[in-house]
Amino acid sequence: MTQMSEKQSTKDADMTDGETQDFVTFTIAGQLFGIPVLQVQDVLSSYQITRIPLAPPEIAGSLNLRGRVVTAVDVRIRLGLEPRAEGAESMSIVAETEGELYSLMVDSVGEVLPLLTGNHDRNPPTLDAKLRAYSDGIYRLDDGLLVVLDVKRLLDYGHKSAA
Amino acid sequence: MDDLLSEFLTETNEGLAVLDVELVKLEQNPNDVELLSSIFRLMHTIKGTCGFLGLPRLESVAHAGENIMDKFRSGDLVVTPGGVSLILECLDQIRVLLVTLEQTESEPEGEDTDLIARLNAAAEAGGGSNDEASAEDLEAAFAAASVAAPTEDTPAEAPAAAEPVAEAEAAPAETVEPKKVEEPKPEPEPKKAAATPAPAAKSEESSVANQTIRVHVDLLENLMTMVSELVLTRNQLLQILRGQKDSEFAAPLQRLNHVVSELQEGVMKTRMQPIGNAWAKLPRIIRDLSIELGKKIDLVMKGADTELDRQVLELIKDPLTHIVRNSADHGLETTEGRIEAGKPEVGKVILEAFHEGGHIIIRISDDGRGLAAEKIKKKVIDNGLATEAELETMTEQQIQRFIFKPGFSTAAVVTSVSGRGVGMDVVRTNIEKIGGTIDLSSVEGKGTTLTIKIPLTLAIVSALIVACAGERFAIPQISVLELVRAASNSDNTIERINGTPVLRLRNRLLPLVSLRTLMHLDTPAEPTKIDVATDQVDAPEAEAGAGAGAEAEAEVKAEVKAEVAVTPAPAEAAEKSADDQFIVVTQVGNYTFGLIVDRVFDTEEIVVKPVARILRDIQMFSGNTILGDGSVVMILDPNGIAAATGEVELAEDVDDAATERHATRAGEAVSMLVFRAVEEAPKAVPLNLVARLEEIDLTKVETSDGQYVVQYRGQIMPLIQMEGAEGLKEKGRQPVLVFADNDRVMGLVVDEIVDIVEDRVKVELKSKRTGYVGSAVIAGRATDIVDVGHYLTNALNDWFGGESTEAFEDANGSRVLLIDDSPFFRNLLSPLLSVAGYDVTAVESAHNALKLCEDGQDFDVIISDIEMPGMNGFELAEAIKNNTRWSDVPLVALSSFATQKDFARGRAVGFLDYVSKSDRETLLNTLHDTLNEVRGAA
Q1: Contacting residues of B for A99, CB less than 8 Å apart
Q2: Residues B416, B345: one domain?
């Protein structure tokens, strides 16, 4: 949490009562998620993807983004949700972690929202274990809740067994 | 200016800059050994290079500085600010000399006796006294300075006192150094006095060093990325152009096309360099050495055009120079020595570079005297690196490897050429820094070969693009031997042995691997479930038992069986176009196999990019790449595929002797019981696993819990049939192999016992079918080796349920680490141990075992084979006992032959017991006793 407020956007907060941070929002299975905008490199809608045999099921494949190899991860499967319906549209958010690019496949990408840090909450302890492991807290919005996805933890396969 | 010289200037200036920083650090942390070594190495490199370039003045200064550093390093001197200042002063002097060198291409006249004397005095006296040097010290300084240029003494004395007079022409310098006369050199301009350039140094820095600029690799990487992007865009444009006729864009696009191509090439070039660049200095070095040492040396360089990533090249340059220098200096004998030894007068140093299996291999060999084990031993003991007792138990190669340890040198005298024990240490450190390995093999009297293996991560390789199930893959061209098109009506047909595809290729049987199956590109049918309803067909016939007609009947059965076996084979169903497939014949080390793919495209030059971290544990891929059309493909790793498909003799070991030893080992004679069951193909089990051969009366067979059982010696014995067998007949007699495991017995139902053959068994094709270890040629016939452990586990687990370990309560869950290079014995022993209640982990080499140790795994007992390629059992035991967490874990040696000497040696290195491999009973008892002992002691 403290780490997040440090990374706040330089943009002046247009709200008077507190600091804001910008998030790229997206939905997976109807749930609203967010990733700090500074971590996002790109948003892709469709692209050619190469399957990677023998990879974990959530690895959708790899793709070429301006000459760099990007590994596509299906966030739905990573979170242990049902796979996307056959033929359903998906979008991707490209984020960099530890020098490697990953493309996070989500259902749809929304707008960038400035969120008041005051509206941030810890994960409720009752949250699904997988979601809790990859989430960095919840934001209370007027029309719902937004789960902050921690990209680094989401892609940290070193602790696969622990997660 | 001479290339060599300008490179030297650039390098030395860099080295000095680093030294400045490090020395200051050292002053703050005088006890940082790492730092000390690093400074010493830098100093050593500078001194060494000066020596070869014929720069005696620089060399003597550097040598004196190095002397002090050596004292610091060995702890004879305490690092004091005074001492550091002195060294810094020495560096400054080197800089001054360098500036003149750059301007005039020769060293300034004059001597640095004062500085050297002070340096030496400090080295002798200890502490950083700046006082005047004694006469002795002066002499020592001259001695040190004159090693490279012995004639220098007298004439050098004069200019020493007269530095301002150094304007004198180059002529005296040439008389001073006879070596230089032979080198064509432009007449140096004698315009500046040696004393004056000091201020100039500040303002001008070094113009040569500025001729090249150093660019961060990241920048090049980015540039390359952008160029790739540009190439893709160009390709798209060209594609569009092709669809349009008479476009006004045609001409400019054509130009763009060319420019982009050149740009791409250029950017690629910035990163790749032929290894020859790193070798450029060597002929000169060898030439100078041969004069200095009075040896005749022939330097042979092969594969100089092998391309290496620039960064990698930079890092191996110094190690290579060191090695070649060492080979010439220490490795080769003097001309007289060679004649005496009956060798050609001219000694040879051979330098080779080539690609192999995704690595770049650099091999430096000489035909000199080789490494003298005795000398090394003595040195090792003198330097306290190991005790005599420890050395006794080491192999020759282990002892030879001591030359890679810091502070080790075999040269009797410390000369200016080498011999401070820094060389090989530097070499190893630098190579390991870039993820490479260095190995050496040496035969005393015959010569030494050093093999450096550097990963190829950044290099450009040529790759064959293939497709399978619609996915494309790249295979490094270097491992591809040939391509074979397999069609059902041609000579090249894929045949199957028990579902394992093979290809007859020029009278050899080539094992095949289906890429489709390997990559799970389809979900293949489970190959083992083939008990199709052939029961009814065969049952009446089979009643005849093992009679005279058995063979004919077995043949009928086998045919039926063969058909059955073929249809559900995994690849068959999926690869319906079986008559039009391609086989990529691939070679890894000495192992050749065929990879079945659907299509073969072109070869392409690819840039290997490492795969994402989360995919790194998939051993089938060595990286990924972006093809010309912009798509990403995975690069197959032939090594990984070979390892995953059963070829386990891929130990990275290239040592011939070890391979030989291994070959004889793998082919040990074993008594095999050959029998027939289910199908015609003969099957075999090791005879010593079989307790008895019995014929049971089928009328006595009962059924219990869905399983055939028979009362046998007052016990209930489960009868197990081979996979795919039909039910038992009602009456008659049935041969049964009885396996006993303490008080548990199991009968394996067979059709006919054929023979007992003592033969060398080498499992050639590893089976994918459960219940089989693999196939081997026994008595001239391809025979399936049955995995007894599989059946034992099946039978006894089913039978005894959860209480299968009652006989060995202590075994319960005890973790056993089994190390054996032979897949045959591994597959044989690990199931046996599992059945006995142990939790078995089997690995094929000592290295893998040590890796487990590093990974933090724990075991209660370790069983190791002795004869293994690479690190053998004794060495492993030593390694474990010496410095791992496992030092308290009991060790049991496993060997097929054990002499009294072996016993003694085994005990000495820490094995508690020595068990014969084929003696299962003793092995289990030994394990039992060992564990009890340890527990009792605890």
Answers
A1: none
A2: yes
β-strand partners of B486: B581
Q: Which of B169, B194, B211 is the last residue of a domain?
A: B211
B646 band by pLDDT with thresholds 50, 70 and 90: low
CA–CA distance, B549 with B547 (Å, rounded to integer): 5
pLDDT of residue B762: 65
Q: What tens digit of pLDDT does each residue of B599-644 get?
A: 898 887 777 777 887 887 787 888 888 887 778 899 998 878 887 7
Question: Has domain A2-148 been given CATH number 2.40.50.180?
Answer: yes
Q: Which pLDDT tens digit goes with each residue over B832-845?
A: 777 677 778 888 88
CATH code of residue B225: 1.10.287
Which of B803, B833, B816 has its CA nearest to residue B931?
A: B816
Whether residues B57 and B203 fall in one domain:
yes
Cβ separation A66–B471 shorter than 8 A: no
Residue by residue, DSSP assigns B626-686 as: E-TTS-EEEEE-HHHHHHHTT-----S---HHHHHHHHHHHT-EEEEEEEEESEEEEEEEE
Cβ–Cβ below 8 Å for A67 and B229: yes
Residue B551 lies in a domain: no
Structure tokens at B465: 């693009």
On the question of pLDDT at B521 being above 70, the answer is yes
Report the alpha-carbon distance of residue A75 to residue A94 in Å, rounded. 12
Rounded to an integer, the average pLDDT of B790-817 is 56
Measured between CB atoms, which of B226, B520, B625 is closest to A53?
B520
Average pLDDT over chain B reads 71
DSSP codes, B562-619: HHHHHTT-HHHHH-TTTTSEEEEEEEETTEEEEEEESEEEEEEEEE-BPPPGGGTT-T
- Is the CB of residue A155 less than 8 Å away from at least one CB of chain B? yes
CATH of the domain at B401: 3.30.565.10
DSSP 8-state secondary structure symbol assigned to residue A160: T
Q: Look at residue B547 and tell me whether its pLDDT is greater than 90.
A: no
Q: Given an 8 Å threshold on Cβ–Cβ distance, is B634 in contact with A155?
A: no
Window B:205-264, CB contacts with A under 8 Å: 224-226, 228-229, 232
User: Can you give the pLDDT at residue B595?
Assistant: 92
Residues B791 and B830 both lie in one domain: no
Of B918 and B465, the structure prediction assigns the larger pLDDT to B465
- For residue B305, give its domain range: 276-455
Task: Tell me the average pLDDT across B387-392.
Answer: 78
Region B278-287 average pLDDT: 81
pLDDT value, residue B379? 78
Inter-chain touch A52–B472, beta carbons under 8 Å:
no
Smallest CA–CA separation between A116 and chain B, in Å? 34
